[in-house]
Hints:
This protein is an alpha+beta fold. It has three helices and ten strands. It is globular and about 40 Å long. The two termini are 19 Å apart.
Amino acid sequence: MDTLEQRASRVLDRVTHGSPDLARLIDSARAVLVFPEVVPMTFGEGGQYGEGALLVAGAVVAHYASTSAEPPLLPPGVAHRTDVLLFMTDEALWDFRNRPVWRLGLDGRVSVLEHSRPPRWSAAGGQSPVLGFSLAGPALREPLRLANNTLSRIR
């Protein structure tokens, strides 16, 4: 069985392959938080859940959970989505790591990265200290909106 670290590494390899713009952004980030699989919860009142790895200088330094009461918006036939956050400044990373719970869009503004063809990435609505994107589909190339998930450290 693949570890969370292996799945996170594979996601980064896949999304940067053939996309030098995104590779440069990831390389310049102070940290990258990768949730390889955010899935719908099919029990209770539903919602979504995923576990992610926070990488600093390429090494995993912590694990986080991503939760929301809202079910994820997924294309037909797709079982999960992948979320990636890039912390571009030391201050944004410090703020994230020193909160017990961090809510996307509330505790820190996240500029959503969008891609176009040919694979070029840009921040919608200007760039903030935290950038993010959410993708789904077999090739991780169907953009989705980043949900207002709550992130909390689990290890």
